[in-house]
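Exam revision sheet. Question 4 asks you to relate a sequence to its structure. Input first:
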Amino acid sequence: MAPRKSAKATYSFPNPIDNDELVGHADVWNAFLDAWNARDIHPIHPVWMLTGPRGIGKATLAYKIAKHVYGNVGDFFIIDMAHNIDDKGKAKTDGKNISVHTVRGVIERMQLSSMSGRWRVIVIDSVDELSTAASNALLKLLEEPPAQTLFLLVVHQLTSVLPTVRSRARVEKMRPLTIPQLRELCARFIPDTEISNETLKLANGSFGRVANLKTLGGDEIYEELIATLENPRATSSDLLTIARKIAPDNAMYGILLDAVAHFGLAELYPSATTQIANITRINLEPETAIFSIINDIKKCLQTHTAI
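Answer key, structure tokens:
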């Protein structure tokens, strides 16, 4: 019998710009400090690309760097979904990508501040969310970076970035957090909540994923998913019930791949990954696609048991 799901708790996690508690990534932070402190001897690279899985602290580090520079010398610009604007300069809250107008707006504001003679910082969180036109506008800017301007590019998937943009950046690959580092963050931000080792393993080194799992009840849904798949008497109706719990939020879709890994079904990983990507890429019905993945896992388990 699947475990009963308890009432969903509510949590409050800081926005990266407000979070001064960077855990991990000392190597990248120190590399930047070395370059910044030696900039009068060796010009600092104007474009730093912070890449790695979601939720490991890339934006937190970007803002830490920006505030270090800004705290001493300059202007601070942000390009992200929260500052997205349309062609009339009004807030754009219904878009899936950062618009070209957002990038152009920052460029215009930068030009207005170009006479100050101070360093300027541009944080882009994230490059993955730039529209094609916005990426091209950024590329033109990076081809001849303005003097005394530092670009901090947050990237979740390096393969999603235009090669021409990537070639103009110093790429810093940031590693997933360790279990002790995740526990340190849990102690800081959710001190009154018990976090199981299973949940930390599900997070794959991402505190952002721990936050999502706890906020959405994903850890309990994962346990229910595993229990249902292990139950030989589970019906299609049972699988559909789980699919309906996962479908509403794409932050939950990763637990399907965790289930594939849990049962050692490597042969299903490519197809499951493709189906998950297709939910947003070609607008598949989430509930149907997720049910299909769960059903494939169930069939594969039955085949392995029969053998």
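Marking note for examiners. Residues 1-7 have pLDDT under 50 and may be disordered.
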